[in-house]
Amino acid sequence: MDPDSVPGEIPTKATPLRSRKRQIIGGGLAIAVVAGTFLFVLPRIADYRDVWGVVKTLTWLELLALVAVTLANLVTYAPPWQAALPGLRFRQAFVVTQASTASTYVAPGGFAPGMAVSALMLRAWGFSGRPVALAVTVTGVWNQLVIFGFPVIALGLLTAEGETHPLLRTMALVGAAVFGGVVVGGVVGFWSAPLARKIGDLAARLVSWLKRRIRRKPVGWGGESFVRFRHETIGLLRKRWHVITLATLAGHVSVFCVLLMSMRVLDVPAAEVTWVEAFAAWSIIRVLGSLPLTPGGLGIVELGLTSLLVGFGGGQAEVVAAVLVYRFLTIVPTLVLGLAAAATWRRHHPSAANG
């Protein structure tokens, strides 16, 4: 008998079959989007021969500048996790973040695979469950707040320059709504222990009901678990919210610096696309790319970012070259390091983990 089956109900294969069918359809759509972008749409914007001609003009000094911003970006992966999980050293945090980020490039589901990989590695290293869950939650929420908050900042900067952009305005409204909703939800959920207990009990009943619909056992947590989580979260944020915030901001800004450097060395000057316009385009795409449509936003980011930068005035071949170099530098190094980290992560056991 299936240990996850619900007493009194006959297990069926309908749910696994439906899930497998959805996965196949989702995978097919993702492949279609990626193939369509790189094989049909981008070549219509700029011929790849012209793009390669732009890339070949890079000097050694420009290549070194690209390497420098890429290394700076990689270094910023670890500090948010070090701040969110006391006792985690830079080397271990770097291994975790490279492996988890690499998983988002090879598996569908947005940030979910990365969060699962992070939790698995940290638990195996000896960090206890609640601190790991807290670190995963806090870093995940802070990343989402930054992603949805940047369009609001970009809209303000673009407006100050006397420009406007309808899509950016929409993304800014969405971002402001999400940002406000998370903040209000956090305040309500953590306002008091009795309220947290009620919310936790309600959430547990709702999730258990959903799990029963798919023939799974109810959850083993409830209101008291939420109260403990509230207490630990308040304790962490009271001491480290500013460090977590600054480290998260630095990580995201360093990604933008890779894009901006790619644009400047590949002949997309400020006279065509200012850094504010580049930031606005990047902010929009960060929101769209966070949607779990394709692994790592492949296809969606390249097409969207190219269209926006060309719309702001960038040359077609130069913009395509800059976007492709930017994506190469923000994906391939992490993918290589992440695969290496996944193969060797057990060797990086912290000398002092939380027991």
Q: Which features would summarize this protein structure in a list?
A:
355 residues; 13 helices
- Rg from alpha-carbon coordinates: 22 Å
How do the helices and strands follow one another from N- to C-terminus?
HHHHHHHHHHHHH
Q: What is the total number of structural domains?
A: 1
Uncertain spans, ≥5 residues at pLDDT below 50?
1-15
Query: Could you tell me the strand content as a percent range?
Result: under 5%
Secondary structure: helix percent: over 70%
Mean pLDDT: 82
Shape: globular
What is the CA–CA distance across the termini? 36 Å
What's a quick, concise take on this entry?
The chain is mostly helical. It contains 13 helices and no strands.
Tell me what you see in this structure.
With 355 residues, this protein is an all-alpha fold. The protein has one domain (31-347). Helix content is 76%, strand content 0%. It is built from 13 helices and no strands. The chain has helices at 14-45, 48-55, 60-75, 79-84, 90-106, 112-124, 129-160, 166-189, 193-213, 223-265, 275-289, 300-312, 316-344. Helix 9 (193-213) packs across helix 10 and helix 11 (275-289) runs antiparallel to helix 12 (300-312). The longest helix has 43 residues, at 223-265. The radius of gyration is 22 Å and the shape is globular. It starts with 13 loop residues before the first helix and ends in an 11-residue tail after the last helix. 34% of the residues are buried.
Q: What topology does this entry show?
A:
Layout: H1 14-45, H2 48-55, H3 60-75, H4 79-84, H5 90-106, H6 112-124, H7 129-160, H8 166-189, H9 193-213, H10 223-265, H11 275-289, H12 300-312, H13 316-344
